Amino acid sequence: MAPSLRIGTLVALLSGFASATAWAGDVAGAKDHPLAGRFEGSTIVDYKARSFDEAALLRAPIDYAALLDRNAPEERSGPEWLAVQGKLTEIRYDIPEHRSSLEVMVNYQSFLKSNGFEIQFNCADSACLKGNVRDPYVLGQLIDTRNGVSTSYFDHARYLLAVVDRSGAPAYVAVITGEDKERTTAFVRVVETKAAELDKIKLVTASEMKQAMDRAGRVQLYGIQFDFDKATIKPESRPTLAEIAKVISDNPGLKLEIVGHTDDKGKDAYNLALSNRRAASVVSDLQGSFGVARSRLTSRGAGVSQPLVPNDSDANRAKNRRVELIVK
Known about the structure:
Layout: E1 11-12, E2 17-18, E3 43-58, E4 62-63, H1 64-69, E5 81-95, H2 101-114, E6 118-124, E7 129-130, H3 137-143, E8 155-166, E9 169-180, E10 183-193, H4 206-216, E11 218-221, H5 238-250, E12 256-261, H6 268-290, E13 297-303, H7 314-320, E14 322-327
Parallel strand pairs: 4-7, 12-13
Antiparallel strand pairs: 1-2, 3-5, 5-10, 6-8, 8-9, 9-10, 11-14, 12-14
Helix pairs in contact: 4-5, 5-6
């Protein structure tokens, strides 16, 4: 006999109606996402919502041992991951006592299917992993990265990824559930895909770069964008790169150090390595695409070590993610 549905927030996608609920005991400012709902009686213990961000969603079994061999446990660039951008919501729930991981997952799966979602990937325990390391708790470390309780998914870890098309803009829901003795946890990530608002950054011209460098010896740039978790420069970065090349061409004695900076998402060592690769990519592109002499450029990554502002809000994190030009 099929279990009764116990997801407490109802969603009617076809009518456009959705409700979101906050309950006593939830962390401040938290609420359910209307596309995912809440298992009956659960409490929100962690919550994050961003109007635009990127996320990597697991869509196939992952080889965690291979990540460890590369000293890159936070890497999310392989084919097992689906990189998406849009409105991001992440919610962790404490599930009521005596409710199993299986019961919670079956309810989420039924709820999502009944609201038009297609299940793209689901798995349980070691089937979610491949290679030599297949302990269920690893799945939690890969997906629920802000969870300080490493044993939350120690037993009966289960995962699903579902998608629904909303007028040509897919929405994704990823759910992981697991048990630690008598405690059950669910972590829900929702990504409502959309394009970024591209009018938020003003192009810094070559003359403006030179003025800033004359005044302070450096300039902060936000117009160079990279693919998620990679050092690949996005096409929309071309105008800023062209202005950098111009300021170098217009000032024959100018030599620059290109410095990459990140926010505090992820571990420091990983961010440092990523910022190094990204700064090097900028140098490589200036050489290969714009003909800038290698002798006039150096690069390094600073990771999270030199924030302009505290990493305590989405707006501040955006200010800290940047490329900096320093006069040598």
